[in-house]
Design brief:
The chain has 373 residues and is an alpha/beta fold. Helices cover 41% and strands 17% of the residues. It has two domains: 144 residues, Rossmann fold, CATH 3.40.50; 154 residues, Rossmann fold (3-Layer(aba) Sandwich), CATH 3.40.50. The protein is built from 13 helices and twelve strands. Strand 11, helix 9 and strand 12 form a beta-alpha-beta unit. Helix 2 packs across helix 13 and helix 3 packs across helix 4. The two termini are 27 Å apart. The structure holds nicotinamide-adenine-dinucleotide. The site of nicotinamide-adenine-dinucleotide has 22 residues, from helix 5 and strand 7.
């Protein structure tokens, strides 16, 4: 590969529009920004801080934001930034790096900073102070605390409702299994329980708890918030993490790690629908197996877009109520559009979702003088 090809190794019809490496020796700052495609509007995507990030990871994350933002129908393209460093470093050092990174990118108005792994609302407050362009801000600065309120879990409730309707069952009385009980899983369980679902099992990294009668979700959340492991919850029976997959239920919600349903275990799943909170919760082979078995897999970036919709609404000055109404409307409409396309074209849901997102990106590109800007 000659050096020119190397520099454009990721280039295709969509992007990336810009790859910017930031270096400031006085504070040992090293970071990268990838602005993938901004035909629909300035890109929104988080800043990830980790010792082992890379340009390739940054590009892949930026592309998935292009797809997610387009699928959600937001007037925003996709971008992402990565900062090399241990996120557990002392606060003063972290502030120096985040401020330096933001300042170096102060003129890159095609990119709006957001929180991601290793960064949080305080980091976004520093970015906002430096350059005025960030989402995921603290409440005092006009932020809508999406993890605290459960924006992504709120969206999952509507994706689950459309999936249930598509399959011909009601949410009331449906049995739900939730793997991962953090910002996404806990609130998904809460919102679905409010609709009359019976949360028959939930797990965290230390194991799970199950109950045929349904878990008391409010009590389980209080237990988790008190720092206890779910498996020690007295309102159910402990269950090993890998047994969660084989529990009979209507809706199975992965809300922890990528690739938890793979080619080896996909035939053990006994659900009617998978509604993912986690990103990339299943391999392509697993999705094909589940599809062949008649199990509906709502695509991850359709179901779990509640967080980014909330962030975009915050950026445009919406209230909390306005943001949650937008999540409801968009996730409902987009899930329905994808499931209709699946039925019409007899294709995998992930293919239908990808096509929906690509169509929106391409049509935004047609309206621009330069295609991806
Ligand atoms: P979190 O850190 O708040 O919670 C993760 C939970 O998963 C924790 O309860 C943890 O104990 C549990 N967990 C970890 N490994 C597990 C395992 N092997 N088995 C069972 N549980 C396990 O994270 P989060 O914000 O809830 O995000 C969960 C997933 O959803 C991630 O993949 C994230 O990328 C994705 N996601 C999050 C958002 C958001 O708004 N926070 C939006 C879209 C996608």
């Amino acid at each position: 590969m000659d050096r020119r090809d190397e520099a454009f190794a990721f280039a295709d019809e969509i992007g990336p529009a810009k790859v910017i490496h930031v270096y400031e020796p006085s504070i040992e700052l090293r970071g990268t920004l990838v602005v993938d495609n901004v035909a629909a509007g300035p890109s929104i995507g988080g800043t990830r801080m980790a010792p082992d990030v890379s340009t390739e990871e940054c590009f892949r994350l930026a592309r998935s934001m292009t797809m997610k933002n387009a699928a959600a129908g937001l007037p925003h393209g996709g971008g992402k930034s990565v900062l090399y460093g241990d996120p557990a470093m002392p606060t003063e050092r972290k502030e120096e790096l985040i401020r330096g990174f933001a300042y170096a990118l102060r003129n890159e108005t095609d990119y709006i900073f957001g929180p991601d792994m290793g960064t949080d609302e305080n980091c976004m407050a520093w970015v906002r102070d430096e350059i005025g362009r960030a989402v995921g801000l603290p409440r005092e600065l006009g932020g809508i605390p999406l993890d605290e309120l459960g924006a992504t879990g709120y969206g999952l409730r509507y994706a689950a409702e459309v999936a249930a309707d598509h399959l011909g069952f009601e949410l009331a009385g449906a049995r739900v299994v939730v793997q991962g009980f953090g910002a996404v899983g806990m609130h998904a369980a809460r919102f679905l329980a409010e609709q009359g679902c019976s949360i028959v099992a939930a797990s965290d990294s230390r194991g799970g708890v199950a109950s045929r009668q349904g878990l008391d979700v409010a009590a389980l959340i209080a237990h988790k918030r008190a720092g206890q492991a779910l498996k020690d919850f007295s309102g159910g029976e402990p269950i090993a993490g890998d047994e969660m997959l084989a529990l009979e239920c209507e809706i199975w919600i992965p809300a922890a790690r990528p690739d938890v349903i793979d080619d080896d275990n996909a035939d053990r799943l006994r659900a009617r629908a998978v509604v993912p909170g986690a990103n990339i919760p299943m391999t392509t082979g697993a999705e094909k197996t589940l599809h062949a078995r008649g199990i509906l897999c709502v695509p991850d970036f359709i179901a779990n877009a509640g967080g980014v919709i909330c962030a975009a609404m915050e950026y445009h000055g919406a209230t909390q109520r306005g943001a949650f109404d937008a999540i409801e409307e968009r996730i409902r409409d987009n899930t329905r559009a994808v499931l209709d396309a699946v039925q019409r074209n007899q294709e995998l849901p992930s293919e239908a979702a990808r096509e929906l997102a690509l169509q929106r990106v391409r049509s935004a590109m047609k309206s621009r003088r330069w295609s991806i800007y």
